[in-house]
Amino acid sequence: MGWYTEHVVDAGRAPALFALVGFVVTFVVVRSVTRRIRARQSSEADRPPGRRSLIRDVSIGGVHVHHQVWGILLVLLTGMLEFRYSPGHPWSEVLALLFGAGAALALDEFALWLYLDDVYWAEQGQRSIEAILVGGAIGGALLFSASPIGVTSDGAASGRVAYVVTVVVHLCLALVCILKGKLATGLIGIVVPLVAFVGAVRLAKPSSYWARRRYARHPRRLERSDARFGPAYRARQERLRTVLGGRPSADPGAEP
User: Fold this and answer.
1) Are 241 and 129 in contact (CB under 8 A)?
2) By C-alpha distance, which of 134, 132, 145 is closest to 192?
3) Could you give the count of Cα atoms lying within 13 Å of 242 in the half-sphere of its Cβ?
């Protein structure tokens, strides 16, 4: 308990830790529930008529209420309470836990925001898994990094100038990552400078803005980018998304 107080509470990391725990646990539970509902609906004909399961979709007035709705409401509520009351320990941790849970509920249906359609089990629904991975990575980076842009300098003018230059370079590297098609790397790089640096100096994705503008005159570099982000790379990403979120439907329109 002493270690937790010294390295987590006193260091101001407790809310970030609780938010990350709430985020991860909620995502695991929600995906388990939705996969269970999907499996049951696929074999619905085998169930006795009239029998209702406790685990089922939520409908109000005949309208299916997606769990992103509860997530958005939870994020808004916890944010409002935090901004208005700024509670200390332990209520700040409680709000952080609920905020992480709400963020997971909302991001688990990120593809529905993006496509404005119920594509949860479609191929496009894999965008939700990518959003979850980015959210979890940023949560972990915030937990282990005290500040996204370092520690301010209260010394001489030269020290303040060096600090500003460092911050500008750091954010420019994160922007380069995004232009190279590495959105997750860029977002994480805002918090962890080393990630931004590595992503900025490595090859861009062939379909990115950076590749279209910079690699047109460097065919060999474009070939290396195609090889690195080719079928093997996409297959690894697909396996990871399938493990975390389930296999998308071959015919999304046939899903209940």
Assistant:
1) yes
2) 145
3) 9
What is the DSSP secondary-structure string of 87-120? --TTHHHHHHHHHHHHHHHHHTTHHHHHHSS--T
Closest CA to 210 of 233, 177, 169, 186: 177
CA 112 – CA 43 distance, rounded (Å): 25
Angle between helices 126-144 and 231-245 (to 10 degrees): 80
Write down the pTM of the prediction: 0.80
- 3-class DSSP assignment, residue 63: strand
CA distance 91 to 100: 14
Question: How many residues can be counted in the chain?
Answer: 256
DSSP string, 173-221: HHHHHHHTT-HHHHHHHHH-HHHHHHHHHSPPPTTSHHHHHHSTT-HHH
96 pLDDT above the threshold of 60? yes
Question: What value, to the nearest 5°, has the Cα angle with vertex 204 and ends 201 and 209?
Answer: 120
Compute the distance between CA of residue 150 and CA of residue 12 in angstroms, rounded to an integer.
15
pLDDT tens-place string over residues 44-60: 655 555 556 667 778 78
Do the bridges between strand 63-64 and strand 59-60 make them parallel or antiparallel, or are there none, so unpaired? antiparallel
Cis peptide bond N-terminal to 90, omega within 30: yes
With contact defined as beta carbons under 8 Å apart, do 185 and 195 qualify?
A: yes
Nearest CA among 245, 209, 224 for reference residue 109 = 245
pLDDT tens readout for residues 61-95: 778 889 999 999 999 999 999 999 999 888 999 99
